[in-house]
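Quiz preparation item.
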């Protein structure tokens, strides 16, 4: 029994904090918006959809969250990164960084590439 407690504690660290389904749905929504950004033919739309994806990933108060942009995940949880648990944290943070790079990119084609890479990273993080 003594050796079981540390094992259970270690396993608990790997699990999401609140709701596993919430994190997954937030990742899927972020992926959809990153995909929409990649297909957009206007830089403003690329940025808007990437902001939506970023808002889903970081949640309110997270780095890069924009209160002036839509948060498609507002009713799904606190953000995919805070809700995703330890195993999802690094890949989701990397996808958020890629989304931020796309938002900051002035060139449409390059911003679309960042968006496509963000969507691909999120697909792999599911």
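Solution:
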């Amino acid at each position: 029994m003594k050796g079981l407690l540390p094992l259970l504690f270690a396993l608990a660290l790997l699990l999401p904090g609140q709701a596993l389904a919430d994190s997954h749905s937030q990742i899927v929504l972020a992926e959809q918006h990153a995909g929409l950004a990649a297909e957009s033919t206007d830089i403003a739309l690329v940025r808007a959809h990437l902001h939506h994806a970023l808002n889903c990933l970081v949640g309110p108060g997270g780095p890069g969250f924009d209160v002036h942009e839509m948060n498609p995940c507002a009713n799904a949880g606190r953000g995919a990164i805070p809700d995703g648990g330890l195993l999802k944290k690094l890949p989701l943070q990397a996808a958020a960084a890629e989304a931020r790079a796309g938002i900051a990119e002035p060139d449409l084609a390059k911003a679309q590439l960042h968006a496509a890479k963000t969507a691909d990273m999120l697909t792999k993080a599911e």
